[in-house]
Write a structure and sequence with these properties.
single chain, alpha+beta, Beta-Lactamase, globular
Length: about 140
């Protein structure tokens, strides 16, 4: 099987949330999308606001849609704000160029999907996603 599995997606989320708890971050949501931008798995921690899932999904969706980390997309958006503003509209609001999502890749560099988080700062969200992806034996950028 060459795609992202449910077992891997759940491992990513479990490790990401464990990292968030270990570091004392606010309650989070973590979402894992496949290479087509479809939800593979997601969890919202107790006491995380209802908006967390949408934000995490928007970050991950943007990353997998553009083949870049959400951190890179945020930097690109600063240089071309009109285009990136239009992307959100074109994507029916699913596109969020904000730090907090990473691409999920296999050992050959093939994009399998993206993981996004919301609840902490963008840096915290990105870091827990990285921990999760690595814990599942995959790579991230």
């Amino acid at each position: 099987m060459s795609g992202l599995t449910l077992v891997q997606a759940n491992m990513i989320i479990e490790a990401a949330l464990a990292s968030a708890r270990e570091k004392g971050h606010r309650p989070m949501a973590v979402v894992v999308l496949d290479e087509g931008g479809h939800v593979k798995a997601l969890q919202r921690e107790d006491d995380a606001t209802m908006f967390r899932v949408d934000v995490a999904t928007g970050k991950a969706w943007a990353a997998v849609a553009m083949g870049a980390t959400s951190r890179d997309l945020l930097e690109r958006a600063k240089q071309n704000p009109i285009f990136f503003g239009g992307l959100s509209s074109t994507a029916q609001g699913k596109f969020l160029a904000q730090t907090g999502a990473v691409l999920i890749k296999n050992g050959y560099g093939k994009i399998l999907g993206a993981a996004g988080a919301s609840g902490g700062t963008g840096d915290e969200d990105e870091a827990v996603c990285m921990v999760g992806v690595k814990a599942a034996g995959l790579t991230c950028t």
